[in-house]
Amino acid sequence: MALKEKALKRLTEKLNAAGIPFALGGSWMLCQRGLLDTYHDFDVFVSMEDAERADRVLTRLGMRHAEETKVGFVAQYHFDGADVELLAGLPVGTEAVYSFSPEAVDGTGDAFGVPVPLLCLEDMYVIYAVGGRAERLQLIERVFAEGGLRHPGRFTACIDGPAPAAVLEAIERARNVG
Questions:
Q1: Is 74 in contact with 64 (CB distance < 8 Å)?
Q2: What is the mean pLDDT of each run of 10 residues along the chain (178 residues)?
Q3: How many helical (H) and strand (E) elements, i.e. helices and strands, does the chain have?
Q4: 13/149 Cα distance (integer angstroms)
Q5: Three-state secondary-structure class, residue 96
Q6: What is the pLDDT of residue 66?
Q7: Total tally of structural domains belonging to the chain
Q8: Looking at residue 65, which CATH number applies to its domain?
Q9: Could you tell me if 130 and 92 are in contact, meaning their C-beta atoms sit under 8 angstroms apart?
Q10: Residue 66: how many other CB atoms lie within 10 Å
Q11: How confident is the model at residue 1, as a pLDDT?
Q12: Backbone angles phi, psi at 55, to 5 degrees
């Protein structure tokens, strides 16, 4: 994992130097919070306004593979032994998108002494609800049940547009356990 962490350090330094707000989510963020033992890649969240600039930064770091999306921005990269996914404006149903903002940052992880911004659990919960990741939802719900909700307003603040009923039901369940 040390090689991957070095890639994350470079990625963080380059995005910071370019002045691009971002946060790491997914399994690496969950590992940093002590909720998982392993991760396989880095999920980097940025706003739609910063997606193209972040893409240029990450493309200079290594190989790029873009995914075709009708809404939002998704691209994958490989450098220094690490797989990285850049995500912005993810679809949340047919009429809404997930919208990253700097308010979604909740703490930092560490990559060889460089602080890496972490996505708040409430935002990640919404993303997992959209993706139907029941096991991850349950993992985060346990955290909410034990420690409460840190950013309850983020559940809806991170969604631009009307969320599907399944996502709203998951949010209500999280609010009830937290």
A1: no
A2: 86 98 97 95 97 95 80 91 94 91 96 97 96 95 96 95 93 92
A3: 7, 9
A4: 30
A5: coil
A6: 72
A7: 1
A8: 3.30.460.40
A9: yes
A10: 13
A11: 57
A12: -60, -45
